[in-house]
Each structure stands twice: as structure tokens, then as C-alpha cells.
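Project standup — Tuesday

K.O.: blocked on the structure for the chain from last sprint. Re-posting the sequence here as requested.
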Amino acid sequence: MDSNVSFKGILYGKTGNHLTKGIVCCPHGDNKFVRFVNSIGENSTNIKEKIKVTCSSDGLDKILIETKEIPKLSFWEQIFFRVDKLQNKAIKWRKEGKIDSFVFKLNELEYKNLRDDYPYLPKKQLRKFANFVKAAAPDEMQKFLNNFFGKL
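H.V.: unblocked you, prediction finished:
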């Protein structure tokens, strides 16, 4: 069964309790954010201080990952990922403190597409991502996350 899931890496800015309108990053945005979470996890001693994980079962199951870290985009990523003015503006606002943090939403269909059909993200990266998300999540979310990530 082919899935027509178009993964766009939607990123939200957060100021106080308000989420900004979603920024559609690009068709490779989910890949970038998985790698971004992995780099945060690899470069921190306590991932719970760097990312906050919540979940939602409203409609599709989704995980929400919030971080105050600022993603760095290389020159090649800006070209390959087709970064637009709005994305650069959000990163600039985060650096200036106008946006407190970024929130990334990943639903179960997008994750399944990354896991099964996306050729540019190795399973090893997805396993790391799942482990870092589980390490940052509260204990009461572990069962939900085990179901969400399934077996890799």
C-alpha cells in the first residue's frame, strides 16, 4: 500500500504559551529535525534539559518535541532543503529571543514514511532518535513511545 504522506517538517515557534503558525520547512525537514535531535542528544550530558517531549492522540498519534536549541543550517542544507525567508526569519527571531523555543510535531504516518520509504535517513539514525526521545520523555509516556516507534 503506497502512502501519499508528504512530510514537510513543520516547525512551530513558541513564545510563552502561544505557538506560531507552522513553518513548512521542506520535503526533507523531518530528516533534518531527526538529525538535529540526534546532535543535541550526542552533545549533551542530560537530554531532559535540552528537549521536552509530549504527545497527542488527537486524531493521529503524534509526538511534540520542544527545544530552545537553535538549528544550524549549512550552505548545502540551505540549498538542498530549499530554506525560505520565513524559516531564516524564525531562526533569526530565536537567536534574538523573540521566539522562546521551537516545537516540532511528528505524526505516526510521517514517522512510518521516514522509517519505511525515505532513502536518505539510515535506520541507525532513527534508532538514535527514538532512544533520545525516550530518554527525554517522562516515564508515563514510555508505553506510548514504544507503540509509536514500534520495532526498528
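K.O.: great, moving the ticket to review. Residues 29-42 form the longest helix (14 residues). The chain has a mean pLDDT of 84.
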